[in-house]
Amino acid sequence: MYFIRTAIIIFSMGLFNPSFALELYEDSVTNQVFTKPGANRVKLGEFEKIDGSVAAKSHDDNIKDRVTPQINAARANEAHQIVEYKADQAAGKNEEIIKSKDKGSLPAGVTYGKKGFEFKSEDNRFAIALQNRVQFRFAAPFDRDPRSVSQLEQDSSSFMIRRARTKLSGHAFQPWLKYYFQYDWSQPVMRDLSLTVDKYKWAELWVGRGKVRYNNERVTSSGNQQFVNRSIVNDIFTVDRQQGMQLFGNLFPHSLGDFSYALGVFSGEGVGERLNDDNNMMWSGRLQWNPLGGEMKFSQSDTEHLEQPHLNVAIAAATNQSRCTAFETASDSCRALSGFDAPGNNKGQYRTNQMMEEVNFKWQGFSFLHEMHWKEITDTFKTKLQSGRETNLMGGFFQTGYFPPLCGAACPEKP
After folding, report:
1. Is residue 155 exposed (0-12), middle (13-18) or buried (19+ Cβ within 10 Å)?
2. Which of 236, 309, 378, 412 is close enough to 351 for a disulfide, judged by CB 3.0 to 4.6 Å?
3. Helix/strand/coil for 108
4. pLDDT in tens, 334-359
């Protein structure tokens, strides 16, 4: 808003006798003109009506010269402010105000999208997104994944809050310096806390706690799965979440030699332990060829209806020596498969080597995902002549689906 300070003196002398003299006083602090004396007021002189105009009776004939500059200065200031306002509009300084009104009166820098509520600084140096997700379900006749034919006869119908998670993600200081945090209130456990430097897409550095880039089924978020749960193959062969660091990237994009890679080193105890149980580390590697369409994000259904066919083929391997033969994201993440000793003081008891191959294809709503796993567990506490020293496990799955297009609000084109 722009304000004009203008002093205007109007004398309605028709209401007075022509012989009546009017005294005027000027405030020495505010420069305002008054008809009555008072504090800080200096007498300007006496005035009377002469030939239809107001003229000074005293020697102060310069009253007009003293008041007129104030009026002219106010008018000049008004013109200057109008010019500045128009310049600001041209520069787009009022753009954020207009955007906030269009977004439902949200403050500037605040939006709501796929990642939840997103807050950004004006210079885009800092950003944070807040998202909450809850999965409440009823299962009958049982909820646990069966591992044998006898377990199909379970009778334990139940309600449960399967997932109740809060996510914080964003960047700090630079758009390529990203952070990610996730907490699950239903278990409870801190699932993720990581920092990623992704300034260069051919070499991104990840440090913290989170998923190992090993196989698609595990890395894909539970919010992007085709089914309610992951397969029973995942429980046996997953390397799950670990604490450590990873280097990954995409090489020669959009060419026949388009490859993606991931290398990682971790403590190998899952997320439930602060420290490693020995000096051995978990090592992992993944190599993915992208002959059609380029690198795809870790997901399962083709909700985007890709116009061109996309094909990714990958192999991966991991090795670890610890008390664990299986992992799960929980406070007791170091687990034991059936037939193996439960984790305790048996530091470094099991040497685990595993590999997997994967095929992922998507096109126009159709999706196909296949994984084949192999895992060898060696009990180092047993001699080479003892039975049960080495155990070999194999498993795999394939799944396919179709996401129909343009079927109304029930089937959005994009998630």
Report:
1. exposed
2. 378
3. coil
4. 999 988 988 888 889 999 999 999 99
